[in-house]
Design brief:
heterotrimer; A alpha+beta (about 260); B alpha+beta (about 270); C alpha+beta (about 240); A: about 260 residues; alpha+beta; Ribosomal Protein S5, domain 2; 5-stranded mixed β-sheet; 4-stranded antiparallel β-sheet; 4 helices; 9 strands; C: about 240 residues; OB fold (Dihydrolipoamide Acetyltransferase, E2P); Ribosomal Protein S8, Chain: A, domain 1; about 25% helix; about 30% strand; flat
């Protein structure tokens, strides 16, 4: 099989001014766009763009468990599929689920389990479908942030939304929210998910090389970013319903004037 | 699709016993919260493998075998050999294991062990190249779980490292289109010795090396893989609940000492 | 202890948002960590005395004993019918809960209800371990042979009914339709003409869309009368 030329490795990941290849500071998130409730058939849905990530999430449920034997008598079963579209990466990805996708489906599900009030819906399933339409660095974290929104949009009772963000090390410095190139050519990546009110870390992975003090510092950076993302999640969710409310009430005023 | 796992077949009463003991700073097998179960490491049990090691971690038994074969490098790394880690949860090891394609637990196990070896740059990948871009040595690390009594990640990580240290490979070179045996053996070139240390949160207490009984009641699990310099090279959180940031910090610090102890055991067993 | 409302009543709140701090009583969809009370869903904050609760804006139907529901027959079993009531559980309508002759001779179940039939039923029994059991013994219950079916989110049913039934009685009066509301979000509409049914259906969807807005009843009434005018105009033109 012939291989396409690799995208060129950037010469430097941090320039003389301390800025990254996309012009960000080390502690800066990529531009983020969140949308909620954009799918018609799903019970809940959300969309996130974070850097070049474009990820769509749908929630179905709580619904009858199929096959029946997977049901649990005291709680809802959460099922999660993280999947990358074949065109989401530089070289076409085989659509069959890879080992990486299977692992990520598991850790993403585990990151969300503690917030969903599953005991209200015994013998049912809550299904989460995360489709990565275009992938950049940190797609599992962006997937978790969007999945929480989709669960909330489905009206599923939950304690709070989970937000996730990665921190990494590039050219010996800690940097927030790594892009693809930074992840690839950097020295470490730590994806973190936080349940803010409960103060619980529900996703924590790491690969690369970090000293203990680098970990401490990076971990704290990631936790702070999760709180920022959590505020954005709430804002976008409330805005959706507030917009309908305002539109209706404005029309009412207009009618009164007329 | 990943689904919430079924509840373990343990009565609430038995679960309570385990939890109450941990809450008092004790454990069902009379260890302290920060102690490993007895560890035994044997190497070289499988003559047909390039290297092998069996680890007994309490009653958990994991066998790792190394096979080195000839293959082609990945296109994006023409000047590096190939490392492949696979784990099998063999059905004879537990009533909960089934024959068939690898479960998500098996995939996670192999990927966590893989990450430790790969990210610590334990194996000198460059030295595995026989002919740049064309012919390289492929190192297969196959992890075989034989008896599951908890904490398979640490047992597998130790077995994999011991088996790598134990490995002997024929000296090879490429002549024309053929790979030929130069005669004699060499050891696999290792630059680092990563060791995974796994913690469980039972109720509100962090314990090291959870047994199966403890895994069945744990809220969450955290593995920290430490390299020979005492730095972190891999981490993985698992389980249905989470850790507070302080619990994570505490576990990461504790991991360094535990990894050093276990590394000394592995090196002694693999070389001895 | 002091009680402080942190969020504004009647406003949209998100899961995890702090609603209040202090000794309030916990109502639906609210939970407590320490002294703080949080929302457990996206909804509208309501305060009743010192009880704090959140009325959800979205969500599926969860069965309750005594609920009137509309559902579709999806299968015929040995002793009854399986009914899809848009809940996470499939409901069972046993033959013994249908009116008609009973006796040693087994009836052919397919003669009473066929797969695809719509039924109005009441939930007779349901708990965490058992799927809902239905009955069609009762006035107005049983097979639905005509009318329009409107499906909306079950979370919006309380708004569709309105305080003391105000919204639904207005809808019936203004559209001149008969309307039966299933608690599961399935609404049956019977009108004197397809036009009046269409207006009623449109109004029901509008309630669903704008359930959390103020002055909804007036806006709906306005919408209906406007549709009526348009219809009359259209009617005169064709005549």
């Amino acid at each position: 099989m012939n291989k396409l030329p690799e995208p060129k490795q950037p010469e430097k990941l941090i320039d003389d001014k301390g800025l990254r290849i996309d012009g960000r500071r080390l502690d800066e998130l990529r531009p983020i766009k969140l949308e909620v409730g954009l799918l018609d058939k799903a019970d809940g849905s959300a969309y996130i763009e974070q850097g070049k990530n474009k990820i769509l999430v749908a929630v179905y449920g709580p619904r009858e468990a199929h096959p029946k034997h997977i049901a649990m008598p005291e709680r809802a079963v959460i099922r999660c599929r993280y999947h990358m579209a074949p065109f989401s990466v530089d070289e076409r990805k085989n659509p069959a689920p890879s080992r990486r996708e299977m692992e990520l489906s598991k850790v993403i599900r585990e990151s969300l389990e503690p917030v969903v009030l599953t005991d209200l819906y015994p013998r049912t399933t809550i299904d989460l479908f995360i489709e990565v339409l275009q992938s950049d660095g940190g797609s599992r974290c962006a997937g978790i942030t969007a999945a929480s929104l989709a669960l909330a949009d489905a009206g599923i009772p939950m304690k709070e939304m989970v937000a996730a963000c990665a921190v990494g090390k590039i050219e010996g410095k800690l940097a927030l929210d790594l892009s693809d190139a930074e992840d690839k050519y950097g020295e470490a990546d730590i994806p973190v998910a936080l349940v803010p009110n409960a103060g619980l870390v529900t996703l924590l992975q790491m690969d690369g090389h970090l000293t203990l003090s680098e970990f401490e510092q990076g971990f704290t950076m990631a936790l702070e970013a999760c709180k920022t993302l959590n505020a954005m999640q709430r804002e976008v969710l409330k805005k959706k319903y507030a917009t309908i409310k305002e539109a209706a009430e404005e029309r009412e005023e207009a009618e009164v004037v007329a | 699709m990943s689904a919430t796992p079924q509840l373990p077949p343990v009565a609430k009463l038995e679960q309570k016993t385990v939890i109450d003991l941990v809450a008092k700073g004790k454990r069902i097998d009379e260890r302290g919260p920060e102690s490993y179960r007895p560890i035994q490491i044997q190497v070289g049990l499988i003559e047909k493998a390039n290297g092998s090691a069996q680890v007994h971690l309490g009653k958990s038994k994991v066998l790792a075998g190394i096979k080195v074969q000839i293959g082609t490098p990945f296109p994006d790394t023409p000047d590096e050999g190939v490392l492949t880690v696979n784990a099998e949860l063999v059905p004879l090891a537990s009533p909960s294991f089934e024959a068939g394609p690898p479960s998500e637990a098996a995939i996670e196990l192999s990927r966590v062990v893989d990450r430790g070896i790969r990210e610590s740059k334990a194996l000198d990948m460059k030295s595995l190249v026989l002919q740049k871009g064309k012919t390289v040595q492929v190192v297969y690390v196959d992890i075989y779980v034989l008896d599951h009594d908890g904490n398979l990640i640490d047992a597998a990580s130790m077995a994999a490292l011991a088996a790598l240290v134990n490995s002997k490979v024929s000296k090879m070179e490429v002549k024309g289109d053929e790979v030929i045996n130069k005669g004699g053996h060499h050891q696999l070139p290792l630059n680092n010795y990563p060791v995974a240390v796994t913690f469980a949160k039972v109720d509100r207490t962090i314990i090291v090396d959870p047994s199966l009984e403890e895994e069945q009641v744990m809220n969450a699990r955290l593995t920290v893989t430490i390299d020979k310099n005492g730095d972190i090279c891999a981490m993985q959180k698992g389980g249905l609940y989470g850790f507070t940031p302080d619990e994570v910090r505490k576990a990461v610090h504790m991991a360094v000492g535990k990894a050093a102890e276990n590394r000394a055991r592995i090196m002694a067993a693999a070389k001895g | 202890m002091d009680m402080v409302l942190v969020a504004e009543p009647k406003q949209v709140v998100a899961p995890g948002e702090v609603l209040a701090e202090g000794d309030h009583l916990l109502g639906d969809n609210a939970y407590r960590i320490g002294t703080k009370i949080f929302s457990a869903c996206v909804g509208i904050l309501e305060v009743d005395g010192n009880r704090v609760f959140v009325v959800p804006l979205k969500g599926g139907y969860f069965p309750r004993v005594g609920d009137l529901v509309a559902g579709r027959i999806v299968d015929i079993g040995l002793s009854g019918w399986l009914v899809d009531i848009r809940a996470p559980y499939e409901a069972m309508l046993p033959a013994s809960e249908t009116p008609g002759p009973r006796g040693p001779r087994r009836r052919d179940l397919s003669t009473s209800y066929e797969v695809g039939d719509m039924v109005l039923a009441e939930i007779l029994a349901f708990d965490r371990t058992r799927d809902p059991l239905l009955t069609v013994k009762g006035p107005g219950l049983g097979k639905v042979a005509s009318g329009r079916v409107v499906e909306i989110s079950a979370a919006k049913i309380p708004r569709l009914i309105g305080r003391k039934g105000s919204m639904i009685s207005m809808l019936k009066k203004e559209t001149d339709c008969q309307i039966t509301v299933g608690q599961n979000g399935v609404v049956m509409v019977w009108g004197k003409s397809p036009e009046s049914e269409r207006v009623a259906v449109e109004a029901i969807y509008m309630v669903e869309r704008e359930a959390h807005t103020r002055g909804l009843t007036d806006r709906i009434r306005e919408m209906i009368s406007r549709s009526r005018v348009v219809e009359q105009v259209a009617g005169t033109q064709t005549a």
